[in-house]
Design goal:
- The structure is a single chain.
- The chain is α/β, with parallel strands linked by helices.
- It has a single domain, classed as 3-Layer(aba) Sandwich (Glycerol-3-phosphate (1)-acyltransferase), CATH 3.40.1130.
- Helices cover 39% and strands 18% of the residues.
- The termini are far apart.
């Protein structure tokens, strides 16, 4: 599996670099200086996880990926190589979250898109409360990583032009909470978590979290 991972990463990174100019030094430095993290990112298109995984090699990075991706043989081979965890977005998340926790315990950084679906236009959408449950179950720090530029990728491909992906990493933090938060508490915590993504984006891309980006956080313990 080590040789397969190295070979796949070589070709994947080559393909991605042919269509993208990637700046993710902050992300790689943050991973190198921390124990296993849950990496949350804003979701614009399908390229984020392949970019983050390939450009952080040889660090062990994988992601939570929608289960229907495995219907495509190429993507199935790719994500199996990186030990990605499938999630059924319409079903129960218990098994997927348990698998993510196991991966973190085995030294993997795990990439998760809390929006759950692509924005396509780059504007940060509403987050899902599942990220709160996952972080508390895994007892792992969260690293916010936001990017912009990817919203132009299809337009640029048609013009045979490379797309610049700018990734910024924030400060890792843990959620301060004992037990299981109720609905109102989950919403407050989620807003604080998403605000850490929003603050890394240009103001026009912060979406519903524009105000939260500058608010004080009461449930986040920064590392």
């Amino acid at each position: 599996m080590g040789f397969r991972r190295a070979a796949v990463n070589f070709f994947l990174k080559g393909i991605l670099n042919a269509i993208c100019k990637v700046d993710c030094k902050e992300f790689v430095n943050a991973l190198s200086n921390n124990k296993p993290l849950i990496v949350i990112f804003n979701h614009i298109n399908f390229l984020e996880v392949p970019i983050l995984v390939s450009h952080s090699y040889p660090l062990y990075v994988s992601g939570l990926v929608k289960a229907e991706t495995w219907k495509n043989p190429f993507f199935a081979f790719l994500f199996n190589t990186y030990k990605a965890v499938p999630i059924d977005r319409k079903g129960a998340f218990t098994e997927s979250f348990k698998h993510v926790c196991d991966m973190i315990n085995n030294g993997y950084h795990m990439c998760v898109a809390p929006e759950g679906t692509r924005s396509k236009n780059g504007v940060l959408g509403k987050g899902k409360a599942g990220i709160i449950q996952l972080a508390l179950e895994a007892n792992a720090p969260i690293l916010p990583v936001a990017h912009h530029g990817g919203e132009n990728v299809w337009k640029n491909i048609k013009k045979l032009k490379r797309t610049s992906f700018y990734f910024r990493a924030g400060r890792p933090f843990k959620i301060k909470f004992e037990g299981r938060p109720h609905k109102e508490e989950r919403e407050i915590i989620l807003n604080e978590v998403m605000g850490q993504l929003a603050v890394l984006l240009p103001e026009e891309l912060r979406g519903v979290y524009t105000d939260q980006a500058v608010k004080q956080c009461n449930y986040l313990d920064f590392i």
